[in-house]
Fold these 4 entries.
Entry 1:
Amino acid sequence: MNNLPKIFIIGSVCKKTQSFKSGGFTLIELLLIMASISLLGALTVPLSVRFLQGQILDETANGILETLRRAQNSAIYQKNDSAYGVAFFPGYYVLFQGNSYSSRIAGADEIFELGGNTSISGIVEVVFSKLAGAPSAVGVLIASLSSVSDSRSISISAEGKIEK
């Protein structure tokens, strides 16, 4: 007959394994999640702070620009038959009525606070002449924050053009 070996299956061995897996997380999974959240926070917080500081600078520059234009328009339209100007000090600036800050009508002052650690450098005082609106000082105002190297510039030309 045939010389092939005969294979007999005597029985099958079945092992039933019991799973100890529960519905929770392992310690390693929790550590990975915490590390991911920490990394995400470490990356987004500085960007958010920088964005906020940029917004503060933009608001400050826009406020100064608006105040300078108000002073110029008041002088051009000869409001109260007077010249108008803006003077800059540490922490605030003043819209005033008169030919200079020292000879102004103090009761007409409008004081504007600078937000945060904002500082203004450049022109200290500018007065716009009646009717023509010509500025007494030309140059660049720079609004900056002490905590960042970012700044915003506002230029005043001899022709009276005020722009950011």
Entry 2:
Amino acid sequence: MTIDEAREQVGHKVVYRAPHLASDSPGEEGVITSVSDSYAYVRYGADVHSKATYPALLEAVS
């Protein structure tokens, strides 16, 4: 996902896949809460706060 695609996905579910995991691993699901110039901020699971995440490591959930 690009930073522009992340901006369009604010409020939507995404899956984070760490680069060291296989592409068929389940990943971690979260919701994009905001986007800066470099990062998408994603609230994962039951977390209270969002975490800065590189958008290239995110996939949209359809």
Entry 3:
Amino acid sequence: TDLAKMRGKPVVILIDEYDAPVGHALADIPLATAIRGELSDFYIQIKECASDVRFLMMTGVTRFTQLSVFSALNNLNDLTMDARYATLLGYTEEELDANFDEHLRAHAQVMGLSYDAYRAQLRWWYNGYRFAPDTETKVYNPVSIAKTLGPKRPHFAPTWSRTGRSSALINYLTMHDLDSRDYDNVRGVTESALDVCRLEALSPVSMLYQGGYLTIKDCDEGLFTLGVPNEEVRLDLNSLLLQYATKQADDDYRDATCFALMEADFDTFFARLRALYAHLPYGSTEAKVPEAAYQRILYVLLASWRFFRVTAEDRQAQGRADLVAESRRAVYVFELKIKGTAQEALAQIKDRGYAEPYRATGKPIHLIGLAFDPSNHSLSEALVEDLA
């Protein structure tokens, strides 16, 4: 009000990260609730000065629908899923063409790719964000584009873990375990489920969506299908899933384990895999753990390493392999057995021809059978054979 009087005209207020104070405190719900109350008092003061405010814009990561800001400032227009603003905070394909053509072509040369192949890879790594249900337009992460086109390194690399991780999500993960669902195909989600309504009842889907790890893939009559937007985010999400599911597998452990597999050092790979499964927080040894839980750990381990392309439950004519990983050097076909043997797992891979579609790659193909002991949740046996 004083500033408006001094200038003789209404003021413009810009508030970035309006949600940060609450998000930083999600590990302490009473504290987060108290902060929410303080923010409510602040926003009420803004509303009472409405005649002195020409324009107010607030941005943040998380849409806390009951943060009190939305009741204190009930004259706000929520632009979160408004198609008119869906490309406001990212680059479209057309904007890349118009503003970065010289840099894009120079980077394609550095990477030794044709321009079309380069753009396809760029799209795979950094595009995919869709911010409104009634638009098909997807946008690139502008920070990732800047960090990619600046140094023009001879390969694409993830920058998300250094620039995009949500503190609210990290604080959420200190209190909750993410379940082992396929986050690349989350179906039947309502728009209200995407909001963070109650601090005491946070959902993993809403936290991942608000944190940028999930985006809109489709919308049918108000029901959303969500998925991971791109490879950069997929790598970081799997790294988070691995870290919080195992409580001990950091990036160094992941790197050494995956590198051993890529180098075909199977003794080291199996030893590190045994150690990883031995430390999983599965509860009592009497607890029944489904095969999918063992498979999920292996998936996030390999899929969080950017040198592997990983497919879980790869569908074939005679069934589906539990997991297939592919590097530039080789293909690895995994089958897991609970209450079975590693030899039975290998026999199933061969009998059902899980590896046959990969002969066309011309790469060595390694068949890997893993057997788990349900009495103590350990990796009891591991065998590998090369496809003849």
Entry 4:
Amino acid sequence: MRHTYSHIDLDERRKIARWRTAGISVEIIAEKLGRHRSTIFRELKRNTFVDKLIPDLNGYYCVTAHDMACERRAKLRKLAQFSHVRQSVIDRILHGWSPQQIAGRMRLERHPISVSHETIYKFAYSADGQAIKLWRHLPEHRARRRPRHA
């Protein structure tokens, strides 16, 4: 059975903020939005504003939460944004390096732009990676990724 997932949008974040201010429980908010309660808990944990200087300002604000989520999402596109990093990753994969080795070497060399091994795998199995058949040079040589918990 396949599930389709969608990111929480600004409208849903407005509802979450309004209902949390009204004191409604996370379980009821999740039910009203048609999402799992862990999704709402994760949203509140990851996107709650914290001010160390003025703790009274701490809280969940929908616009701030949306900006935080968008900023975090933009960081995932490093290989698309930085062509020199992308080319370096491709070259190393073609020379037989594993994604773990590439990510580890970038951290060791303290590159200003580093990527995780998971980002490299996602790139290798993306449309761009499939076009140049990067998967053939990965340790497992699979054309498709297996689900983690299958």
